[in-house]
Specification:
By secondary structure, the chain is an alpha+beta fold. The protein contains 9 helices and 15 strands. The strands form 3 sheets. An 8-stranded mixed beta sheet has the order 4-3-5-6-7-8-9-10, sandwiched between helices. A 5-stranded mixed beta sheet has the order 12-11-13-15-14, with helices on both faces. The chain is globular and about 50 Å long. The structure holds D-MYO-inositol-1-phosphate and calcium ion (2 copies).
Length: about 270
Amino acid sequence: MHPTVNIAVRAARAAGDVILRYHNQIDLLTIENKAANDFVSEVDKAAEYAIINEIKKSFPEHSILGEEGGQILGDEKYQWIVDPLDGTTNYLHGFPQYAISIALYENKVPFHAVVYDPFKEELFTASKGEGAFLNDERMRVTNSKGLENTLIGTGFPFKHPQHLDCYLATFKAIHPKVSGIRRAGSAALDLAYVAAGRLDGFWEIGLNSWDIAAGVLLIKEAGGFIGDFSGRDMYFETGNVVAGNTDVFKEILKTIHPHLTEELQK
Ligand code: IPD
Ligand code: CA
Ligand code: CA
């Protein structure tokens, strides 16, 4: 494992300890509403603090973007992107599907990624050019051709209700073509599952950079493809994501495209 990933793993495990310490005492947590259907608990904040602390010990000069604390300015060449708890709504309901997502971008190129599911003790890692791993096993995207017999992940636009009708139209278009669709509630894990071949593909509207920064590299290093709804790599700008092997990626795009509003086609 690359030494930088080791540091990211240490940071993720520190956050995992915080998250698991409270997972049986959720009733005691202070929970705030950042926006409609967007919650933050003291666990999200403490987990982010633990991650930043670990990164800073080794790389005090790097920039760090955390979902809860915002941007910590530093050397712009090195940008960490951190979601301390992806799947907060699941966590707050005791639904065990959530993860920590940490990525390091160098000159805007993803170099290292960690997604860690502390409950299942599953560690997804990747470094540019060195492959992607689930614990010690190499990951590969599936080799499905087309959408027949596939299992596809997605996310509902519950933070963006203005896109619900459009989303439901894309769902209706995908539904008859696949074996199943899953909405598990953590985009970082959804992308890690595509990289691991547990899902054949994925699409979601309106994600943030911290939801996807690590998943991008996991998928690329597992031989997959990730893009926005125009098929380019503007997912950070648009927040819209499609992923899968090359063929599944193209098929999802082709299937949803006629149903997208003009705004979402960009
Ligand atoms: C959310 C999860 C969810 C996705 C949302 C994200 P959070 O992240 O990834 O699957 O549908 O759009 O915001 O808020 O739990 O970190
Ligand atoms: Ca998130
Ligand atoms: Ca989060």
